[in-house]
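Researcher: Hi, I'm a grad student and pretty new to this. My advisor asked me to get structures for two proteins we've been looking at. I'm not sure of the right format, so I'll just paste the first sequence and hope you can take it from there.
Model: That works fine. Here's the first sequence with its structure tokens right after it:
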Amino acid sequence: MKVLRKLQLCMGAFALMSSMGATLAFGATPTFTFSGDGYSHGVGMSQMGTLARANNGESTETILKAYFKGTSLTTLSGLSDRYVRIALDKDSAARSSWKVRPGNIGASFVLNSTTQTYGDTIYTFKVESGSICMYKGATKVRTISGTAVNLVPSSGSTKLMEVYDSSGPFSYTHVRYRGYLRLEISGTNLKLYNYVPVQEYLYGVVPRELGASYYSAKPAASRVQAICARSYGYANIMKGSTLKCTTASQVYGGYGRWSSAARTGSYAHEEAQSNQAVNDTKNQCVTYNGTVITTYFGSCNGSITANIEDVWGGSAKPYYVGVTDPTHPSKCSHSWTVTTDGMKLAATLKSKGASVPSGAGSTVYVASLSPTYGHNGWVKSMTIVWSNGATTTISYGDSVRVRFGLRSARFKVATSGTNSEIPTGAKLTRVEESNKSIRRYGSWTTDSATGTSGGKHTFSKTNGNYVMVKFKGEGVSWVGSKGSTYGRAKVYVDGAYKQTVDLKSSTTKRQQRLYTISGLTGSSVHTFKIVVTTKSGSTSAGTVDFDAADIINGTPQSYLSHYYEETSSLISHSKFSTISNSGFSGGKAYRTIVTGKYAKFNVRAQNFEVYSKTSPKGGRFKVYVNGGYVTTVNLRSTSTKYGVKVYSRSLNPSKEHTIKLVSTTASGSKSAGEVVLDRVLTYDGVLVN
């Protein structure tokens, strides 16, 4: 999580992205296009940015202070002699056995601080009866007391130990390490660690994170990497942390490796130029108010770095804030674009460990995405709405990056390709905004406009307002407008969320097909709902337009509404008092200022609505549906208003539902406020006994 990966991977093919193809799995499955910047978690130093700064002649100290605001470059005496502890299994896992031998031909090692040496032979360590046992071939050499043992090289010009088995970030065999090895019992298995002084640890880190072949002409860049790696390691020493040998901490490759078990050739993992950078900066680290900080870094932060609280949560830090970064070469993914469809994205999220509903990637797809942004355009969280109506929220930018398999969390996402095609030869029946099959909730304005269907259209820019179309047929197509001040709308079919449609356009366009769905059961009655929602990247709503609807191989169905005064015999309730005012439906309403008073309704309808009075003395009531608590409605407002719709509920009209409203304490008070019941409405249904 802390460090992205060695720089070389930044130059490679974007294999994961390529696997997320653009082909739609189903006609109504949306396509998502991610347009991003950078290749990293985004916090702290950018390796490619460091190269650009060094190329521009900036000094080591200037570069560090550019990325870590308010810090100092400090020399701490004896720092490089401190030991770090690194897990040598790339997953930090325990194994049933480990094979080791001296790292040099003809060399030897000792156990712990003993004087007995063990020569240049392969030794196998395993756990038997709770103790560590040492084998030479099939022969047990000794049983070691305690739960851990150190394997310390005792000879060789550079004292080394070789791990015969696979180890390190790339699971190479025959890797040679400075310092000493430590085996610790973990259950019935063993974990292997390398203990090495900070300075020698950096010899194995810096070339893995910043290869000399890229920066041979930019020594300042190598020194920056050495200081960041040292500060990162030392900060973890002070926290008592075990470092991993992978990008989860810093990529650590050790001294080198033999090319085969026969040790006839070898590969160096250290590089002379990066070792020189480590030596030139001995004991130097980055501090803030005298404390060494964890100097996070990644390969490419794009045009601006991220704030730590947006990436991993927690509190903000003055030295982990976004700073403008130099322009990066395109080969390191300064800018990138990824396109995938909702079904493939669902499979990716599942494979990356996100919380997904059953069937994700096979029958359930991602229907819409709603990112929230922190500082500098970095995504802070992502809400996923699935095709079955479930939602998942992924918190913090780096989790979003990892779960979505993207290069960074600095991106915008656009949705397209969401509409099913109108079947060839289908009969379309157009219904205008005034048709009885259309009903509107909230403040919608009907106006004449050139280019609209029938010369008129209706529009709203209030979040939560909606239009519903009732029809019998095989599908429906929403016809409306786009424009520069237009916002977004959520689309539901038969009560199930489908997608969020963005209506923004640089120019005004009339009679656009904004969403189409086909393939529905033609003999059934369906509902199509358009809900005004906030604009992308905003807390306010833009204009949402409804011009007409085209019914595919079907006919519109008129909405039937019924309203019931508070005195209806179909409403059961506690004793309420009666109050009069011309603003009430029928001039009267029920009122209570006592907690626990209720009104109960048995409903068989498509929708149920409650109308009331709101005022500065307004109280609250709790809503229960079929015995389960749903929400609390607050009736307090700055001015007195009558006939206000205060609650609306979509229902399954094929079933009978019980809805109960119970007065409760007023907001911010221990006593009840005023709760008024004026009337209720049902659509496509009625109250029943």
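Researcher: Oh nice, that was easy. Here's the second one.
Model: And its structure:
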Amino acid sequence: MKIPQLKKKSEIKKCHNVSWEDNYSWIHQKDILEVLKDSKKLNPEVRKYLEEENSYAQFHLSDTKKIQKVLFNEIKGRIKLDDESLPYKDYNYEYWEKTTKEGNYSIKLRKKINTNIVEEIWNGDKEKEKLNVEYFGVGDLSVSFNDKLFGYSLDTKGSEYYTIHIRDIKTNKLITEKIQDTSGSINFSLDDKYIFYSKLDSNHRPRKIYRHRLGTKTKDDELIFEEKSKAFTVSLNLSSDEKYFFITTSDHNTSEQYYFKINEKKPKPILIQKRERGILYSVNSWNGKFYNHTNKSAEDFKIDSSESLDKPNWKPFVPAKAEVLIGGCTFLKNWIIRSETSNALDKLFVRNIKTEKEEELEFSNETVYVPGVSLTQRDKNTDEIYLAYSSPKTQSRVYKYNLITKEKKLVKEQEIPSGHNPDNYIVERIECNSHDGRMIPLTITRHKNTKLDGSANLLLYGYGSYGSSMSPSFSSTRLSLINRNIIWVTAHIRGGMERGMRWWKEGKLTNKKNTFEDYIAAAKFLIKKKYTSKNKIIGMGGSAGGLLMGAVVNQMPELFLGIIMAVPFVDSLTTNLDHSLPLTVGEFDEFGNAKDNKEHFDYIYSYAPYNNIKKMDYPHMLITTSLSDNRVLFDEPAKFTAKLREYKTDNNLLLLKTEMNAGHGGKSGRDGAIEEIALDYAFALKITKKI
């Protein structure tokens, strides 16, 4: 089949006295944000190219159709399709969700306490059918405090512009105007006369909080807060004691909070603490005290408490610990549960408020696992919580736990209908040396029969940005590769916070290359230790993890058999220079500001994947993107693919697949998500010759 070719139109770009040629920049439309909302506005020539690439990918993956179907059925076969969540007890009702064998979306149910009458208040599949749309993204599902109203927000394009709807549960009729172009979150006032929401600006940034009186026109909505900085975005949350609303405005590295009482007739948010660059803080209210989770004078966070916010006198509650990330708190009348993270492992602690004694909650004898905690009811006067636990080889288990008696009762275990025996798998946590001596944690999951003689293929997964830590939790989908003797390794590289804030700081701005070096060091270490061999590794990452893939494949392509990159941030210099794009301005503290800072420009230019493609052999590559993605525009992977076709000197596969009706998260619905995973895994099995 003819290889797709994107037309070249040379453009010489200049910045900081540096010039470079970009032959494919013409595909970026000036009205790109409008294209994301309405794909009919896409340049026909660009659409034709994307469709040609889709046909080309389909042709070269035609021999994987059978294995894609097998993988789809395998993955779906590990999901209990007709499943129900554990109930959450409100004051008058118990609420829970369920899924069905036939459906792709959740159903929200409730039952009045002390009765057996179950009401269905939301059915995603029926709602999608009513709208007759291909993409159906559900944002928020929220019930009013009086249990009479139901709010939901929908994105039917994949562009993450959500429309809010409020309906009367009894009559099922909408009771107010729909509210368009929001971030999706819905907060009812406690008297249920209003909702609070955040409006997206023309650059898809939520910088305004509005109050809407139910039953009135949206043109009369009251602006209660506006963030002036284009780098900051806003959100609103109710305090744990339901006495205050907190407005948080932040970028990735700096935050500022305001509060107002829930019953204020005209909310006037009061500043808690003026923003300081690099200082993050989050205040909550409970039991007559305020708790501040902050990194001020505590690199890896601490928690302080104060009796008042009018004249705060912050006192230590949980002190800082070196390279131990102090997490937030869950409050009950007599207990406070909190988390810590170190060495890419989480721990939970419970504190008795009366005695101030604190102890760690023990889970298992496994060395690598993920704990979790959630509340059983809205009334905090209880000694019971839900404790969750999973590991890379052990499916999720949820216990009802009594904090006084320490009695633990299993109330839900993730069911794997097709069967699963954790004893068939081996999980290891090892460390490897990076280029500068820093030790990189690696979580390795393999089948017990997979040989460690260098013969196995290995999938090396990485992300390493925004302080996002990769959790070593259970994934039933990965078993489809692991059962075929492909070892799965998650590299907890710098740029995340697996080892605290310093781990993040050492992997961003002008330290960003540490992220790439850590990943390459992990690949070399795994080869050295005979987990795999050169040219047997498949690199995998999405979004900022796609930036990682693009950077390492330009640097050391010979290490890899293949690369799988989803919605990849590969034209990072162009995006960083364009301050009109949704995420750019808010990410200056993550990647830098190339337009206004020459040092940042030179550094990003030196690693940006699109700018550093070379004339050399590249491994097999599968690149996926979505037409309505507003976080990583589709033109980044499209340009990257076109330039790779021009430069690469090999005959390996280079496939670009664009979802024409999806956003950053890919297809909507359960089956859509499984189809995408099956495609990625089929590509991995094709290049490893396992089909």
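Researcher: Is there anything I should tell my advisor about the second?
Model: You could mention this: The mean pLDDT is 96.
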